Amino acid sequence: QGLNQLLENLVDLKQDHNPALQIEGIVINNYTPQAKLPNALIEQLKTEALPVLNTYLNSSIKMKESHYACKPLVYFARSHKLTEQFRALFNEIETDLVQTNPSLLKG
């Protein structure tokens, strides 16, 4: 439901303000691989040709703990699985950006 509203807003924004506006990728977060419903929803997104990123962010109490400690996860739990997933997500997005905008490599 939230995604449908976002997509409708995107259409309006494109028409009114920026025809080039597009969704670069959808981040799957609070992911639980064993749950059937999230996997079905992800497949539905892909079937609708929406740009689902390959890196999923698992659900983890470490995120809440890092918030409570007022420390970014990368400093709070450097080698935790979720931290590694955030690094992988960053690398995926960075790679996609450079592929679509090679001029970003020019310093």
Q: What's the helix and strand layout?
A:
Blueprint: H1 2-16, E1 26-31, H2 36-47, E2 52-58, H3 61-68, H4 73-76, H5 81-100
Parallel strand pairs: 1-2
Please, could you describe this protein's structure?
This protein starts with a helix and ends in a 7-residue tail after the last helix. It is globular. β1, α2 and β2 (52-58) form a beta-alpha-beta unit. The mean pLDDT is 92. It contains 5 helices and 2 strands. The chain has helices at residues 2-16, 36-47, 61-68, 73-76, 81-100; strands at 26-31, 52-58. Helix content is 55%, strand content 12%. The protein has a two-stranded parallel sheet with strand order 1-2. With 107 residues, the protein is an alpha+beta fold.
Outline:
It contains five helices and two strands.
Helix percentage range = 55-70%
Low-pLDDT windows of residues: none
Shape: globular
Report the sheet with the most strands, covering strand number, pairing sense and barrel closure.
2 strands, parallel
Measure the end-to-end span.
42 Å
Which class best fits the helix and strand makeup? alpha+beta
Strand order of the largest sheet: 1-2
Tell how many strands the DSSP assignment holds: 2
Instruction: Report the C-alpha radius of gyration, rounded.
Output: 17 Å
- The chain-level mean pLDDT equals 92
Order of helices and strands: HEHEHHH
Number of DSSP helical runs: 5
Share of β-strand residues:
5-15%
Distinctive features:
107 residues, 2 strands, globular, two-stranded parallel sheet, 5 helices, alpha+beta, 12% strand
